[in-house]
TrEMBL record:
GO terms for molecular function: AMP binding; protein kinase binding; protein kinase regulator activity. Residues 146-209, 233-295, 304-373 form the CBS domain. SMART domains: CBS. InterPro entries: AMPK_gamma/SDS23_families (IPR050511), CBS_dom (IPR000644), CBS_dom_sf (IPR046342). This is AMP-activated serine/threonine-protein kinase regulatory subunit. Residues 1-11 have a biased composition (Polar residues). The lineage of its organism: Eukaryota, Fungi, Dikarya, Basidiomycota, Agaricomycotina. Residues 12-24 have a biased composition (Basic residues). Keywords: CBS domain, Repeat. Belongs to the 5'-AMP-activated protein kinase gamma subunit family. It comes from Steccherinum ochraceum. Gene3D superfamilies: CBS-domain. One of its GO terms (cellular component) is nucleotide-activated protein kinase complex. Residues 1-32, 384-404 are annotated as: Disordered.
Length: 404
């Protein structure tokens, strides 16, 4: 007898009960303060085995200015080539003569602005037109500004030593000089900047970068608004700030007095709305606006180049590794720290100024705590004394990509 299977008389299949299988453990070690410190130690050892030549891109150009060049022509050269500094060369003595940077422009503006306001008959435009780069140090003496040290480093020196020099002298760049074996004259090879050095680290130490997981505020990287507020000081002390109605010359004075390169622009609630940088001053000088620096920040920002990348912000809870990944992807010179969701939950205001982080702050933390004693000497507190400073061998060639 043939029986047909129907939903009513089909045999029931007994299924095994499901058993939850344990999840396989992660192959990555758990992040901890120890892994963070280990990553820093590995990065420092890596830099000790590398020199400045390793950071050079495959192709690059170097802008060198003659010290007898007029300031206006030098500025035009910087703008045309998209750079904010250049080495100076003394053609009479055939030697390196220092660096021409935005700080020199700031001092130049202060000098001529003060002279123009003190004497109505003083012709600023004609004087600037013929002012030469070799006379910049005379202006610093008249303003009472300390003359910048004549820094230099050999390109064969380790990147670790170059980084220490940048930190100890508070410089943002160091010229790399060699000597011609035939003539004995100095040769300007290139300029190593903080950005190029940090980007080199981000490209060549990817594993270590991922282990830098601790938040920026906890690592004390950067300058933060004093909490509680300091009596008699601005509410954002020690950070210099301005509003959209602040005269540009007041901001220029902040640059010179504080030795800083940017001032956050905030509204009445403390929300960051923009950032005025020293490079913005170059545009004003090129346009001849140094004769009327009473214009407001709002008016000055209208002169800004349309390709301005914008203000880069972060929160205090972002990690150092995230910041280094950002440096790897785009040109960043500073980050404005603002209050985020965590601060908002505690009664803060999202987007309000909390701090500012520069590349100097990042490099100082990665390299370690250096205490300057005398030029060329330092006290290091990087690794325990019982550990040997063993330099690890360099990685394979494919991992040693140079930062641009």
């Amino acid at each position: 007898m043939n029986a047909s299977l129907t939903p009513n008389n089909s045999p029931k299949v007994k299924r095994k009960g499901s058993v939850r299988r344990p999840r396989a453990g992660s192959h990555l070690p758990p992040f901890s303060p120890e892994t963070h410190e280990s990553a820093l130690y590995a990065i420092r050892n890596y830099l000790k085995g590398r020199n400045s030549y390793d950071t050079f891109p495959v192709s690059f150009r170097l802008i060198v200015l003659d010290s007898k060049l007029e300031v206006r022509k030098a500025l035009q050269c910087l703008l045309n080539n998209g750079v904010v500094s250049a080495p100076l060369w003394n053609s009479e003595r055939s030697c390196f003569a220092g660096m021409f940077t935005v700080s020199d422009i700031i001092h130049l503006i202060q000098f001529y602005y003060l002279k123009a306001t003190s004497s109505s008959s003083y012709d600023v435009a004609s004087d600037v037109e013929f002012f030469r780069l070799e006379s910049l140090r005379d202006i610093e003496k008249e303003l009472g500004v300390e003359e910048p040290p004549l820094l230099r480093e050999h390109p064969s020196a380790s990147l670790y030593d170059a980084a220490k020099l940048l930190i100890q002298t508070h410089a943002r760049r160091v010229p790399l000089l060699d000597h011609d074996t035939e003539t004995g004259h100095e040769v300007i090879v290139s300029v190593l900047t903080q950005y190029r050095l940090l980007k080199f680290i981000a490209i060549n130490c990817p594993k270590e970068i991922t282990q830098l997981h601790l938040p920026l505020r906890k690592l004390n990287i950067g300058t933060y608004v004093s909490n509680p507020p300091v009596e008699g000081q601005d509410r954002f002390y020690p950070i210099a700030t301005a509003s959209m109605n602040t005269p540009v010359f007041d901001v220029v004075h902040m640059f010179s007095k504080g030795g800083i390169s940017a001032v956050p622009i905030v509204d009445e609630d403390g929300i960051v709305v923009n950032l005025y940088e020293t490079v913005d001053v170059i545009t004003l000088v090129r346009l001849g606006a140094y004769q009327s620096l009473d214009l407001t920040v709002t008016e000055a920002l209208h002169q800004r180049s349309p390709d301005f990348p914008g203000v880069v912000i972060c929160t205090a809870s972002d990690s150092l590794g995230t910041l280094m990944q950002l440096i790897k992807k785009r040109r960043v010179h500073r980050l404005v720290v603002v209050e985020g969701e965590e601060e908002e939950k505690r009664g803060g205001k999202k987007g309000r100024l909390l701090g500012i982080i520069t590349l100097s702050d990042v490099l100082r933390y990665i390299i370690g705590d250096l205490v300057s004693v005398r030029m060329g000497e330092s006290v290091e507190r990087l690794i325990p004394p019982e550990e040997d400073k063993v330099v690890t061998p360099p990685p394979p060639a494919e991992d040693a990509a140079a930062a641009s």
